[in-house]
Amino acid sequence: MHQQRNAGRAEQKWSGAFHRQVRIEHDGRSAEVDEAIAPMILALWRRGFATLASCENVSEWPSVRHGLSPDLAEAAYVTFTTGRELDRFVEIVRRVTPVLTEVRPDASSEWTPELQAKAKQVGGVFGLLFHRDAIAAVAAETERTA
């Protein structure tokens, strides 16, 4: 999982890549992202979203593997810099699959306190976890969204 480059501003890596990475580019943005989630990130960018980070399967992160509740295993993850963008994405995801959890600064979530602290270290992340089996359907729904 890597943080993504937006509006010409490079973000630092959170951790090493745990999945096969591909390079994506759109309208001055570029990033190395997990292969399975790349089409969805591109769809989000085309619709004006500014993503911060993503991962196709968070249960494989060594730093969080033991901090996730069992129902979050095999989840995909996308983060944004604003709650407004997260809210827009939640609407899209809910059309095709259940939202497993939302991560918002200073809000309770199913993440452990340690994981919440890590999110706050990067400036307050707004994120969403959903079933990774729905990545393609979420990408298609995002493309259909005006």
Q: Stretches where pLDDT falls below 50 for ≥5 residues?
A: 1-15
Q: What is the spatial order of strands in the main beta sheet?
A: 3-4-6-5
Outline:
globular
Instruction: Report the structural category.
Output: alpha+beta
Largest sheet: 4 strands, antiparallel
Query: Which range best describes the helical content: under 10%, 10-25%, 25-40%, 40-55%, 55-70% or over 70%?
Result: 25-40%
Task: Report the strand count.
Answer: 6
The termini sit apart by 28 Å
Percentage of residues in strands: 15-25%
| Count of individual helical segments | 4
Radius of gyration in whole Å, from Cα? 14 Å
H/E element string? EEHEEHEHEH
Mean pLDDT, all residues: 77
Care to describe what's here?
With 146 residues, the protein is α+β, with helices and mostly antiparallel strands. It has a domain at 51-144. It has helices spanning 38-46, 83-94, 113-121, 135-144, and strands spanning 21-26, 29-34, 51-55, 75-80, 99-103, 126-131. The strands form 2 sheets. A 4-stranded antiparallel sheet has the order 3-4-6-5, covered by helices on one side. Strands 1-2 form a two-stranded antiparallel sheet. α1 (38-46) packs parallel to α4.
Task: State the main characteristics.
alpha+beta; four-stranded antiparallel beta sheet; two-stranded antiparallel sheet; 4 helices
Strand and helix map with partners:
Blueprint: E1 21-26, E2 29-34, H1 38-46, E3 51-55, E4 75-80, H2 83-94, E5 99-103, H3 113-121, E6 126-131, H4 135-144
Antiparallel strand pairs: 1-2, 3-4, 4-6, 5-6
Helix pairs in contact: 1-4
